[in-house]
Design brief:
Strand order of the largest sheet of chain A: 1-3-2
Oligomer: homodimer
Helix content of chain A: over 70%
Largest sheet of chain A: 3 strands, antiparallel
Order of helices and strands of chain A: HEHHEEHHHHHHH
Distance between the termini of chain A: 43 Å
Chain lengths: 220, 220
DNA sequence: CTGTTGATAAATGTATACAAAGAATGCTGA
DNA sequence: TCAGCATTCTTTGTATACATTTATCAACAG
């Protein structure tokens, strides 16, 4: 594996999981020593992350991890809504019904996962990732897939901010199940509408979670 | 200006305008000498272009300019349709009516530009760019704007393949005018529908042009 | 004559040295 | 004491040298 890829992945993970919090300044020598690569591949990684929108150049010099505000959540969903709708529409037209049928079956058992503590929750998130992957595989359009990948990067960051409310997760699983069933039935319009519903609910939940987190932080 | 930016812009222009044709191999030393920068900033530029999807790593080693096939056009429009629809919806909600009113007036005179030969056509394209810019300004969501920018990069490449049929350009101008007027009237749904129409027609034209070009090339 | 393998050459990937641009700090003068 | 300026020091940007990988070509065996 190339050192630049290694650095990219490491920094990406650190940013997404919050180890490198928004606003953190990334000095080249410091990070290159921390990650055990020289400045050249590190700079390549940084320039990739800048394209991803995960770091930005602040006040002339100095790269810092970008912030994720309440506004960002709304703005991200303004991209997410049309992209995910288009994705499920195409998946409904082109997807392999058997694969999505299998996923539907697993989502019908999502409750059990969600009630299964930390391990179960993680399994539930992995199930969601497999769904995303199946949709991307069905789409075939590399342009849309690339846009989705970039989107999911930012969504993963936001997810960290949302509380993992089992009640909401169960509701989300049901909403998702409707989408999958529409794909299995090759009903693009229904899939799009169900996605619209899911997006709306997810956005509301994300905003509420972020707001309550803001309050908590102010109190603390 | 940084050498890496200079290299990026130069390569980007060459790829978009076709000087660097699809399939062209980009050797680092060769390009760095051609552009008058050393390998380090050149590599940074190359890695950016790879993220843009304009070049790709083929068979292990060797970066080549990505191809633009008929399939690519269809696939690109599968991203374009939802993105542009969302963009005009938001523009209709948030845009400054005066700015778009001015653009509408200019599009009403588009015929004159389109009939004005090479210079006029270029002016017409610049008018379209100003419209795109106005829409992006109105949107405010950096995520959507970034996705649109990436999209327009690839569209610019395709445009080179389309023949500039004045009849089609005039029709496109009228379609665009409908969109702008919907924005001025703050009618998001109408703007979205008009965009849907415009996309459909543009796609058809792009495909026809690409097909006839394919035939031409085969004959030649 | 063809397939495989080893050597060689060329290109990419990484590290480091050097240059240039900013920021911080301290000095001087009012 | 504070403003302005110069100097120094840190940090980024670029060039180049070095390491590593991979493709090509030739020679040899089958």
């Amino acid at each position: 594996m190339r050192a630049s890829d290694k650095a990219y992945r490491a920094l990406l993970d650190d940013i997404v999981d919050g180890s490198l919090a928004p606003g953190t300044a990334l000095a080249e020598v410091e990070q290159s020593e921390r990650l055990g690569v020289s400045r050249t591949p590190l700079r390549e990684a940084l320039s990739q992350l800048r394209k991803d929108g995960l770091i930005e150049q602040t006040r002339g010099r100095g790269l810092t991890v970008t912030d994720v505000s309440l506004d960002d959540i709304v703005e991200l969903y303004e991209l997410r809504q049309p992209l995910e709708q288009q994705a499920v529409k195409l998946a409904a037209q082109r997807g392999n019904s058997q694969i999505f049928g299998q996923l539907a079956a697993e989502f019908r058992n999502a409750d059990r996962l969600i009630e299964g503590g930390e391990v179960g929750i993680r399994a539930y998130y992995q199930l969601n990732e497999r769904l995303d992957q199946a949709i991307e595989d069905a789409i075939s359009s590399p342009y849309l897939v690339a846009a989705l990948k970039s989107l999911h990067l930012h969504l993963a960051r936001i997810r960290r901010l949302s509380r993992r409310d089992p009640v909401r997760l169960k509701a989300a699983a049901i909403e998702t199940l409707v989408i999958i069933e529409a794909i299995v039935d090759r009903n693009p319009e229904l899939a799009a509408s169900a996605t619209q519903v899911h997006m709306q609910q997810s956005l509301r939940n994300a905003l509420e979670a972020a707001r309550s987190r803001e309050v908590t932080q102010r109190v603390a």
